[in-house]
Design a protein that fits this description.
Blueprint (H helix, E strand, L loop, with lengths): L3 E3 L9 E8 L6 H20 L7 E8 L4 H13 L6 E2 L4 H14 L3 E3 L14 E3 L4 H15 L4 E7 L3 H16 L3 E8 L7 H9 L4 E3 L4 H13 L6 E3 L7 H6 L6 E5 L8 H13 L7 H19 L5 H9 L4 E3 L2 E3 L11 E7 L2 E8 L2
Parallel strand pairs: 1-3, 2-3, 2-4, 4-5, 5-6, 7-8, 7-9, 9-10, 10-11
Antiparallel strand pairs: 11-14, 12-13, 14-15
Helix pairs in contact: 1-10, 2-3, 4-5, 10-11
This protein binds phenylalanine.
The site of phenylalanine has 14 residues, from helix 10.
Length: about 375
């Protein structure tokens, strides 16, 4: 039985510990879910090869939420009531994690999101954790980079008004950029899934910005980049972790060149632990280089496994307590110590997009 089976596929029984996973395996955020699934499967494979946990093998039940928060919430209900999982990993998109957290918290089942950065996710309750930084920091990172490195004075913002992540990052960026002496010329909005952004981009162009902050997901950002260039907007685009996908280059082509985004991890990191992770991941996934989603999901699964080992039993309260005590855990996307609000405090990297890839520019510490 593969460690990663679709919901209902993996065996229950006394010889296994069953974890749950919810991710976007299809839809506009599909690369997020697929990378995360790969990272989690690698962590479980390694743990099982090393003997499992408490004498049992680990298995994970995975549900595809099709990039929809309502589906993500339903998947959590199924994982808890039917599959009787001890813990849930997911989601990537903050809007989906928010919908899931509600259910997991109510049932007392611990949930760890690898990569949702909206601060309100872990505020849903004491069973909800994350292994990544949060958006008040991520928004500051790009505001600082725009002011101090790119020396921009006037920036426009284009937000996704269907995404808690995008709305949150917009708010922080606007505030921090202004605090650092910059001016926001205008804030325009689109809805996830839109395909024509010309009206908003035309309005943005009129304000003559020196850069445009687009804190969205890759499916939309790639198209936005093309349409911006077609309308003669040549200034750099800037974004957050939601840009991290191979598909960004496919959709954006050369229009995305010269843009920057903040992220959790760079595969250029020369650290031995990171190098080993990249080599192991490539070996399992046809030479694919792991993105931040894969790295964070791998870390989230390893934090979960570490807590399972330390907890006296696999009940919700015991696991919750063990996860909360995570300290100095050596992740591939940074060292993880969970604070009183169940968040990790970590550095961010800024990456530059050019020639169909993103390259490391700088690290910004909290
Ligand atoms: N931080 C994003 C969110 O909260 C998700 C994401 C993380 C996307 C990392 C790509 C890379 O919605």
């Amino acid at each position: 039985v593969p460690a990663t089976a679709q919901g209902g596929g993996a065996p229950a029984g006394d010889d296994v510990i069953v974890l749950g996973e919810v991710g976007a395996l299809t839809g506009g955020q599909a690369t997020f879910g697929i990378s995360s699934r790969n990272g989690i499967a690698l962590a479980l494979k390694e743990a099982n090869a090393a003997g499992g946990v408490k004498g049992k093998k680990l298995v994970v039940r995975v549900y595809d939420d099709q990039s929809k928060p309502e589906e993500a919430a339903q998947a959590v209900t199924r994982l808890i009531t039917q599959d009787k999982v001890v813990l849930i990993l997911g989601e990537v998109a903050s809007s989906s994690s928010l919908a899931m957290a509600e259910k997991a918290q109510a049932a007392g089942v611990p949930m760890i999101t690898p990569s949702s950065t909206n601060p309100t996710v872990t505020e849903k309750g004491d069973n909800i954790f994350r292994v990544c930084f949060i958006d008040p920091f991520q928004g500051f990172v790009m505001a600082k980079f725009a002011r101090e490195n790119l020396k921009l004075n006037k920036v426009a913002v284009l937000q996704d008004n269907k995404s808690a992540y995008s709305i949150g990052l917009t708010e922080v960026f606007r505030q921090k950029f202004a605090e650092l002496g910059g001016k926001i010329t205008v804030t325009e909005s689109y809805s996830q899934g839109d395909t024509d952004y010309r009206a908003q981009l035309t309005a943005i162009k009129k304000t003559q910005p020196e850069g445009i902050y687009v804190p969205g997901y890759y499916s939309e950002v790639g198209v936005i980049a093309r349409q911006a260039r077609e309308l003669g907007l040549k200034v750099p685009l800037m974004g957050g972790d939601g840009w991290d996908s191979e598909k960004l280059f496919e959709l954006g082509g050369s229009a995305i060149d010269g843009s920057y985004f903040s992220n959790h991890y760079s595969p250029d990191n020369p650290d031995e632990r990171v190098k080993k992770f990249i080599a192991d991941y490539k070996a399992d996934y046809n030479g694919a280089v792991p993105d931040a989603l894969a790295a964070l999901a791998y870390d989230a699964a390893r934090v979960a496994i570490d807590a399972l080992k330390r907890a006296p039993d696999t009940s919700g309260p015991a696991l919750r307590e063990a996860i909360a005590q995570t300290k100095d855990f050596p992740g591939v996307a940074g060292v993880i110590t969970l604070d009183a609000k169940r968040n990790a405090v970590k550095s961010a990297v800024v990456l530059k997009v050019a020639d169909g890839k993103s390259t490391y520019v700088t690290t910004i510490a909290p």
